[in-house]
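Notes from hallway chat w/ T.B., transcribed later so I don't forget. T.B. wanted the structure written out for a chain they're using in a teaching module, and asked if we could keep both sequence and structure tokens in one place. Agreed to drop them here.
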Amino acid sequence: MRSSKLFLAMQVGACRAFVAAPSFVGRGRAGTSSALFSTPNLSPPSEVLGRVFDRDNRPIILFDGVCNLCNNAVNTAIDWDPNRKLRFSALQSNVGRALLQAHGREADDISSIVFVTSDGAYVKSDAILGITEELNPLPFLPLRPFANVAQLVVPTFLRDLIYDGVADNRYSIMGKRDECRFDADGEFDGRFVDDLLAES
């Protein structure tokens, strides 16, 4: 399956929690430990927000890059999005942190998946439903009608209660990894937001 070809690796700025690691691998080339101590100059969050939607209006899913459950969900979203309607970025990336701040959240807040559109951002169950609306697991089975029904029938507080129960235990459910995920071999170019967009 194509999503199995996604690599897990380190990229400078892509996962701040691991910036002090001894080495990194990114887009097929190895780096030295000295490179890890160079911090890029970052643009203001509002500028980053403008850049990511300047020439590409597709929504962005901000996900926990070290969460196995979240990474499996990204695999599923890619497989169920044949028309490439969605883009992805780790919450821990420079772009992810900037988008969080641009929408009034703390840069280090990884408590919820975030669905970012050119019109605003959605969190928790509203983010899940927004993403679901864009997915088509089969040509004749779009999920938008199911998402619309769930939004109307299930109250937000109940949806969020269920979401929080899973999110708060996500590391216990499937564990976590020591590397932040990005598209190492370029197979999914155009699906993962370039973290360089956050640099000044």
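Follow-up for T.B.: The helical segments are 45-52, 68-79, 94-102, 124-132, 144-153, 156-167, 170-174. Might be a good example for the class.
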